[in-house]
Structures are given as C-alpha cells and as structure tokens.
Amino acid sequence: MSFWTTPARFGAIAGAAALATVPLAGTAHASVRVTQDRITPSSMTAGSATTASLRVHSSSCFTARTLGVGIRDAVGNNLDFPGSASNVRICPGGVSITTGSRTLPTGSYTQFGFWQDTAGSWHNLSSRTLTVSAASASAPATAPTTPPTSAPTSAPTSTPTTAPSTPAAAPASPLPGKSLTWSDEFNSPIAWGSRWVGTTSTAFQYGNHNPNDNKLDWLSESAVSVANGVATFTATPSSNTLENGKQAWTTGQLTTEGSTEGFQVRTGDYAETRVKLPSGTGAWPALWTWKNGNGEVDSFEYHPDNPNLLELTNHVNAAHDYYTNSGAISPNSWVTIGTYYGANSVDWYVNGTKVYSDGVGVGANWSAYLNLSLSVSAGQYHPSPTSSAPITFAADYVRVYR
Are 113 and 69 in contact (CB under 8 A)? Predict the structure, then answer.
C-alpha cells in the first residue's frame, strides 16, 4: 500500500495504491485509517449541473482539514467538485458531505474522495470511472467545449508526472489479488427471494425459530428494513410462544440459502461486513455460514454483556478465539469485520487488520451459504432481554471477494 503524504494532491492516481482504506503516515494520527464508504454521482449528463456526495468513516475520531470529491480528466487536470467541507470530524460512525454543483463535458473521468490532514498532506481514497454522457436533443448541452485547465482554489495543484492509471472498479479487499464478486450495499430494498431469504433456514430446527439453540428468534422479513444505505434489524416481542414455553421475539435474518441466486462462499473467498454493534440486553448479532449442518464459520458473534469482545469461531474444524479490543469494539459503534476462508487457515480481520488465524482452515472443497442475523438470547449463556424495548442492529454492507 502506498501512502499519500506529499503536501500537494497529484493529478494522476496510482490505481492499486488508491485504496478505499488509507492510513495516515507522517502525522499525529499515524494509526488512524480512513475508509470511503460511498460516493456519488455514478454518472452525469453533459451540461447538467450536478452535486456530489461522499461518505467516509475512520478507525478512530480525528478532524480532517478538508474533505471533498475529486475529478480528473484523461490528462490529469483537476476538475474537482466545488464546495469541499472544512474541519470535518471523522469518526468510526461515519460522516457524509454534499458538495457544490458543477458541469462536465462529455467523456470519461476518474472520480474519488480525498481529504487533507492537519499537517497539510493530501490523501486520495478509492477511485472509479465517472462517465459523462451527451445531452439529449431536447436538452442541448451548455457546458464549455473544453475542460478548465486550472485547478480549483480549494486545493493545491501540481503537474502530473504520469498518466492516470485505470481506476479501481470496486471497494478494495485487505487481501491482495482478490476482486469483488458479490455484494449487497443496502442501497435499495431487500431483494427477498432472489438474493436473500428471511423467513426460514435449515439451521433453525423449526425453520423460522430455533428454541433449542438458546434463541428466542421468530424470523420475519418485516424485521429488516433499509434506509440511507443501511440495513436495520429490529427485534421486538412476538405474539408467538416457543415450544419451551418462552415468549418469542420477532427478529430478522438474511440468508442466501434457498434464494434464487443461491450464492455460496467457498474456500479462498474473503467475506466482509461493516456493522453497528447493538447495545440492547439479549442482542446476539452474527455474520456466519451454514450448509447441510456442517459448514458453519462465524465471522463474528457479539453480546453486549461482553461489550468489547467478538467471538470468532470455525465450527468446520473446531477453532475459536475471543478477540477483545475496547478501541474498536463497543456497543453502538461501527466496526468492519472480515473473514478469509482458507483451506489450511481461516483468518479474521477487524478494521482491515488481521487479528486471528486458526491454522486449521475449512479444507479445499468447502462451500456454504451466507447469513447475517440478529438473534435474541434466551438467557442460558448470556442475558435475555430485560424489557420489551426493541433491540436494533445495523449493517452497511456485505461483500465477498475471490
């Protein structure tokens, strides 16, 4: 990984180096990592004034001098969106900005988020291609026929020393050589049936509930909603009674098992999610795999009564770790968790850093369905709910690289 630490921003972007997650080097915030979560627009029409938006988060809170959306043309000219934000507080929970509007001539551009640290160094985030199409005949273009040659006053300029590289096509993986193969960014309603199933799982004894696993769950699609690029799972007391006599809780689970796509992770894949950990007593969120009763790998399980701990478990070949980190893991905080399903070792990552390798793996021919869920504990190992107040858990995305 390369670090953007020079005082001026470059007109050219080194493709592989322009990753979504960038550590600060040479500053007082050397341990902070900044991740670009989403950027708009994805396309423009020539002559039509358009604003841009950017959402980022960091591994810990700090203040960036500048945060904005950059644009480069084919020869490296700065055509950034105006109205970059100043003195922006960036935290693990994330922050969003909206720029001023601008027009661009027809063509293909490189688009990316950027920020400036307090020492004055500029850092470019993940890049992609922005295509500006010609205006329709009914709406003739009013944009200038040639692009501006001067950089915006909001950032220093420099003469590019190399031609722009091909921009990154998708969010980057911490593992080299991996490309995004499947994801849900939760930018639209849940694709029930085609991508996810939310009412039944073979991991549950009764399909939609599973009291013998110390769970109060009663699955319902209505318990998962999407807004502003985030999926929210909400558990509430149910009118149903479990076989053991306990009151069930209506809650949500997303599984690829039984969906039309039927997507499965397999040996060599890397799966990642960014989640906001819950605080409600009884909450039991997890990202896990399942297939035929013998494919479970838990990317994480979390219980608020152990507020700074993630449970990392390979049930295929019996290995586990209790990973504790009060700086990265706590109720109501966002954290990025990833798992590499290696044949000889399953590796777990927290906020892009490897935290545990089990040394046993899943074998060469393993595959399984993905599950993201909010279970509710029945009280055997962790406390059950102490009130009828809803319990919530949120996810920003689920991504798989291979």
Answer: yes
Q: Coil, strand, or helix at residue 263?
A: coil
Identical fold between 15-133 and 180-401: no
First to last CA, the chain: 19
pLDDT at residue 19, as a whole number: 38
**What pLDDT does residue 6 have?**
29
Is 15-133 assigned to CATH 3.40.800.20? no
The answer to whether 218 and 248 have CB atoms below 8 angstroms apart is: yes
Question: What residues of the chain score a pLDDT lower than 50?
Answer: 1-28, 138-169
Per-residue pLDDT at 76: 75
**Domain residue limits, the chain:** 15-133, 180-401
pLDDT of residue 170: 61
Torsion angle, CA of 320/326/330/336, rounded to 10 degrees?
Answer: -60
Rg (CA), the chain: 23
Please state, in angstroms and rounded to a whole number, the distance separating the CA atoms of residues 172 and 323: 24
Q: Are 103 and 50 in contact (CB under 8 A)?
A: yes
What is the C-alpha separation between 12 and 98, in angstroms, rounded? 24
Q: What is the pTM of this model?
A: 0.62
Residue identified by tokens 């590289």 is 165
Token pair 């000219």 is found at 77
Contact of 224 with 217, CB cutoff 8 Å: no
Domain 180-401 maps to which CATH number in 3.40.50.1100, 2.60.120.200, 3.40.50.40, 3.30.230.10? 2.60.120.200
Cα gap 322→295, rounded to integer Å: 20
pLDDT of 136 reads 65
Strands (E), 215-263: 217-219, 224-227, 230-241, 247-251, 253-255
Amino acid at 399: R
Closest to 219 in 3D by CA, of 50, 93, 371: 371
Q: What pLDDT is attached to residue 106?
A: 87
59: left (phi over 0), alpha (psi -120 to 50) or beta: alpha
Structure tokens at 93: 């929970």
Query: What is the strand order of the sheet 21-23 is part of?
Result: 21-23, 33-40, 53-58, 95-98
